């Protein structure tokens, strides 16, 4: 296991390139199960969760080829198992995304039920309810979802709440179902749209992705394709907050500003000057201290829960008091306990964190608990007095490609050492 050591105090300057979106790459890798021919995916981020998904597909018998640029070619024609084991699912809940594709294309799937999670209970009941309504026979036995179906049938689904991977799983299942499926109260996240666009390029008939009503007309088969993953809006947002906290001036390339409206608005409110072009964002703080902001997380296009921890860190050193309400997950304030150990003034009341900014944070040994919480600890380390050690950074490696290299390129003093 590795840890990161960050010497705080450097203002970030310069430009970096944003990687492909983890949360689009994961469902798109699962979607390769649907295609009759090879699927080639470009702009795939080099991340631990991607390796886990490749391992999962490889264990099922799929042929995967990766080139030096992380273009991944997947050929599902060699599949021999329809099984996602607990050992892999417990390390990555997104493994549940193979359920819909396996069931709709091969009529069977045994997928481990994901267990507990550091950010909330995160059940998958809505994935299962939707598949059952489409005619799947599902039982839970020995910790596994055992699913079978003849051909799934199109139905009108009203989702009880907005779920990103739930929408993705059901959308993939519907592509090969008989008839038309309508998913109402669907997730509108850009990653859902990216998956839909990839499926469409495979021959799927999907309308309305990116709105709350997605209509899918099932087809008999899908073909191979070549597809480029969209840029990671959460990685983009994380580096923007890093620049804002350190008072720096940074340009992020290969990103999509229109996918970050809620985040950019909050950075503006915090005092950052934001300039955007078609595929870049520039943030200028010119050495100023940010102002605290208040935030309420909600599904897209609302403020993303995946940016909540980073803004909590920003509020810790900002001028004034900020109130952050987490409404998507019930237990996503684990980072607060670590930030308090650095001298942050944060009070958590239910799903709200009230932060009064302090003049400076002090370094401390810190423990990463989940992906975005870990990112917030790295951000805090960038501005803390002294050397901050963040342990258990395998959480960070799940979602941030070469974070220490990218931050070093911007002038941060950060290094990775074995713990
Ligand atoms: N929920 C249910 N039942 C379900 C599904 C979801 O009650 O069947 C609840 C969840 O417990 C949660 C809410 O619905 O309270 C929303 O969860 P959602 O299903 O949307 O989350 P997810 O699909 O499991 C994805 C991302 C997360 C991101 C959330 C919210 C992927 C692989 N993961 O998770 O990303 O936080 O949407 O935007 O796309 C991350 O990247 O750090 C991360 C956690």
Distance between the termini: 6 Å
Portion of residues within helices: 25-40%
Strand content: 25-35%
Overall shape: it is elongated
Give the names of the bound compounds: uridine-diphosphate-2(N-acetylglucosaminyl) butyric acid
Largest sheet: 4 strands, mixed
β-strand number: 24
* Strand order, largest beta sheet: 22-23-1-24
**What would you report as the Rg, rounded to the nearest angstrom?**
21 Å
Helix/strand class: alpha/beta
Please characterize this protein's 3D structure.
- The chain contains 14 helices and 24 strands.
- It is an alpha/beta fold.
- The strands form six sheets. The chain has a four-stranded mixed β-sheet, covered by helices on one side. The chain has a four-stranded mixed β-sheet with strand order 2-15-17-16, with helices on one face.
- The longest helix has 14 residues.
- Uridine-diphosphate-2(N-acetylglucosaminyl) butyric acid binds next to α1, α5, α6 and α12.
Can you give me a brief rundown of this structure?
This protein is an alpha/beta fold and 419 residues long. The chain has 14 helices and 24 strands.
What are the key terms here?
binds uridine-diphosphate-2(N-acetylglucosaminyl) butyric acid, 419 residues, alpha/beta, elongated, 4-stranded mixed beta sheet
């Amino acid at each position: 296991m590795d840890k990161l050591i960050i010497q705080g105090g450097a203002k970030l300057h310069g430009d970096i390139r944003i990687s492909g979106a983890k949360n689009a790459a994961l469902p798109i890798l699962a979607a390769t199960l649907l295609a009759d021919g090879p699927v080639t995916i470009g702009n795939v981020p080099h991340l631990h969760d991607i390796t886990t998904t490749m391992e999962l597909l490889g264990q099922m018998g799929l042929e995967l080829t990766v080139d030096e640029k992380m273009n991944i070619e997947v050929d599902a024609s060699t599949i021999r198992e329809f099984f996602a084991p607990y050992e892999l699912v417990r390390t990555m809940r997104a493994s549940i995304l193979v359920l819909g594709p396996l069931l709709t294309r091969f009529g069977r799937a045994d997928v481990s039920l994901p267990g507990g999670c550091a950010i909330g209970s995160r059940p998958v009941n809505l994935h299962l309810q939707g598949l059952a309504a489409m005619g799947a026979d599902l039982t839970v036995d020995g910790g596994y979802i055992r699913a079978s179906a003849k051909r799934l049938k199109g139905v009108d689904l009203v989702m009880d709440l907005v779920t990103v991977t739930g929408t993705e799983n059901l959308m993939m299942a519907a592509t090969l179902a008989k008839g038309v499926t309508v998913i109402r109260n669907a997730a509108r996240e850009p990653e859902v749209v990216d998956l839909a666009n990839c499926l469409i390029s495979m021959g799927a008939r999907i309308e309305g992705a990116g709105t709350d009503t997605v209509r899918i007309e099932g087809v008999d088969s899908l073909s191979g394709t070549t597809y480029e993953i969209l840029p990671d809006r959460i990685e983009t947002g994380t580096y923007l907050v890093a620049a804002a906290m350190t008072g720096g001036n940074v340009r992020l390339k290969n990103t999509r500003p229109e996918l970050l409206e809620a985040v950019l608005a909050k950075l503006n409110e915090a005092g950052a000057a934001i300039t955007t072009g078609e595929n870049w964002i520039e943030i200028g703080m010119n050495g100023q201290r940010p102002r605290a902001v208040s935030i309420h997380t909600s599904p897209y296009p609302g403020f993303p829960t995946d940016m909540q921890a980073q803004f909590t860190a920003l509020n810790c050193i900002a001028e004034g008091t900020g109130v952050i309400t987490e409404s998507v997950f019930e237990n996503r304030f684990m980072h607060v306990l670590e930030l308090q150990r650095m001298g942050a003034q944060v009070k958590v009341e239910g799903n709200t964190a009230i932060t009064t900014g302090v003049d400076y944070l002090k370094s401390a040994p810190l423990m990463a608990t989940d992906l975005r919480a870990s990112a917030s600890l790295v951000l805090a380390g960038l501005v803390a007095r002294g050397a901050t050690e963040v342990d258990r950074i395998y959480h960070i490696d799940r979602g941030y490609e070469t974070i220490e290299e990218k931050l070093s390129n911007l002038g941060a003093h950060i290094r990775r050492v074995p713990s």
